[in-house]
Amino acid sequence: TKLILLDSLLQENKMILRYKILVISILCGGIRGSPEEDKAKEFLQTYDKDYGRLLNQATVAQWNYDTNITSENSQVAQDSWLKVTNYQAEAFDIVSQFNQTGFSEDIKRQLKKVGQKSLSEDLMTELTRTISKMGDNYGSTKVCLPGGKCEGLEPGLTDLMAESTDYDLRLFIWDEWRNKVGRANRPLYERYVELKNQLAVLNGHDDLGDEWRDRYESDTFTEDVMTLYRDMEPLYKELHAYIRRKLYETYGEEHVDLKGPLPAHLLGDMWGRFWNNLYSMATPFPDKPPIVPTEAMKKQNFTALKMFQTGDNFYAGLGLIRVPETFWTLSMLEKPDDGREVICHATAWDFYDGEDYRIRMCTRDYNFEDLQTIHHELGHVQYFQKYSIQPQVFRDGANDGFHEAIGELMALVSSTPSYLSQLGLLDGYEPDDQQDLNFLMSQALITVSTIPFHLVYDAWRWNIFSGKVPLEEWNSEFWRLKKEIVGVAPANDRSNQLNLDGTALFHVAQDFDMIRYFTRTILQFQFLESLCEVSGHNGPLHRCDFSGSKEAGSKLGDMLTLGCKLPWPEALKTLTGTDKMSTRPILQFFAPLHAWLQEENRKNGDQPGWE
Prior knowledge:
The structure is a single chain. 61% of the residues lie in helices and 3% in strands. It is an all-alpha fold. α1 (2-27) runs antiparallel to α2 and α5 packs antiparallel against α7. The longest helix has 36 residues, at 167-202.
């Protein structure tokens, strides 16, 4: 241990020495005979090596904490990220010394992505601890059920919210999760907003929401998002009305108003983010052979490991990169049975060394939803592997939505009846219009339904970060937007000033924006259209399955390799031929379902929208 600590100290001293030499070089006019850009390139080489090493150490520490929640592991992770933060602040100061006149666009873009200013060490430590504590609350909370048994989120509460049709039990669980997680996180989140806003302003933004929007490098981003939403709103409202009718038939008129918003606790998971668990009640033609192959997965022993191997084969079939051997030995693919507290929320991890990639997930054997999630998370890993040839500053998606769009695209293709038939999970499947509608419904419940959900979570936070909403109205503003845009409302009173229900979601508690998931839903169908064309697909877009197409894999791989080297519109154009986000492909994909929903709602006398 002493040798390891000594080596770490030596490495840090070497890094500091390199930085001092660079600073002196910059301030004194540089190395004799070297132009300013050469000094910048030298700095970037040093930065790439040192920043990558620090990121790796911090990510390892974070992994150790997320897969074994202890106060000791939490402290190690916080200390590691503080080193990254301090290093970034030092790097930012160095970059500000360069006169970038005449620099190449590539070098200027790299320098633009280096570092940021930092608050004082005490405040940065407080911010890191605040986010970590919110994660503790989310990951370790249990709800004690009326019978006395206490369940954590994964798998206990998640399974109950997915499967139970007991109205009162669902409401109890929904309510208790928010009372425990949201109330514990409220004071922490209030401080988080203060500190993150201070940090954003220090780095030249109006507030944290402005900083998040600036990542999209567009002066019209907010307007563009609202335009995209207005395009999608008619389809969403038809789906909403149809689902409301199905909930009414399941739970009765005493619980569901056919003209009102949907009760928030009846939507298939803890948050109503994905409605796929409502598919059994929403299937347009339930007498057709099933397209959700749960029973076939059991018969063919699709364990967690087999599902991951299937996903890896999917990417290899496209001519893309298999996961490294270390993936299988270092990932957490199932929930540990040794008593450790872990965060189960499925995530893919890049360890920034070009070698180590993992997934943390509490996979359930024979679970089709988890099979889709696996294909999604492996999409992130593929992106990591492809852009690992880039310097650290370019190792990211072209924008936040790109990373998520790749994952969802692959989850969609892996859910097509054509692909599932190849796996032997759908016997004798013959596509027809009714089967198409069943498939489209299954996809709408995990895409169309999420669009207003993701929009609201960030519209709410943008209003908080900007100070437009006073502190005492934070929770009421959340539910105002949920009702206005999503058409969802709580079944009981959430006005208690202790509540902050938005923070009971992983992404809010852990400092992730949600607009990335909004943009990903639009982008994934643009990607789909392009790759289907390259693969030689003929026929409607919703019947496309480009699995096994080396041509599609090659075109996709070319874009993934870019990382964020180019502004995202340019990266988008390399794959799709356009530099704008467009709803045309997604609306084309769901056009048959949209027409069917309009007719079905008309027959039922259901008016889209809510009072």
